[in-house]
Write a structure and sequence with these properties.
The protein folds into two domains: 44 residues, no CATH class; 172 residues, Exo-inulinase, domain 1 (Jelly Rolls, Sandwich). The chain is 17% helix and 44% strand. Strand 8 and strand 9 form a beta hairpin. The protein is globular and about 35 Å long. The two termini are 13 Å apart.
Length: 218
Amino acid sequence: MKKLIVLLVFAFMALMIVSSQSWALVWDFKSDNKDWKPVTGEWSIKDGEYIQSQRGVSAVRTFVGDANWTDYTVETKIKVTENSYAGLMFRAQSELEYHVFYINVTENACEWWHHTKPNPDSRVQHFKQPPVKVKIELNKQYTLKVVAQGTDFTFYIDDVEQKVDKSDIYPNGKIGLWAWDTKVSFDDVRISGKGIPESAAVSLNGKLPAIWAKIKAE
């Protein structure tokens, strides 16, 4: 009876952990970047940040995830250290086909584009605007976030809504980090949503496997 009670308590705790988990996948770059697939640029990890250090190259990018992911919320911390343009890719279907939401330090702006074949710089602009309640500056960290639900997209900087817009281009895809002739550091890339397998939250949570190991041991 006592063992059954212990089992029920730990099962309840496990359920609470999963239900309260806000993010299915998190990359904090404390150790490595093995999940990420750079296409161009010079990427490295230093002091818990994922750093792109190459100038003079357009559409520098690195990808992670599953091309079948559909609706999700994705965010990253970002700090431009040299030049101007860097951001967050989403709904990436290939190395040349993706959306990108980025900050523009030089013009104190935020922008949304989608890139297409055949070239890395083949792209179409959706919007460019001054940021709402935020000033974009060098060497200052911001949090970019995109909520993608069907054809609806909501864009945020530091949890302040910047724009709500629509597009039926690329209904699914990976996520990624992006820069254009810019040195930049990224941290705490996070994603969750119905397009992300629930098992991801379990396998990366860390606490849940430990709980079940404890139950089995008893």
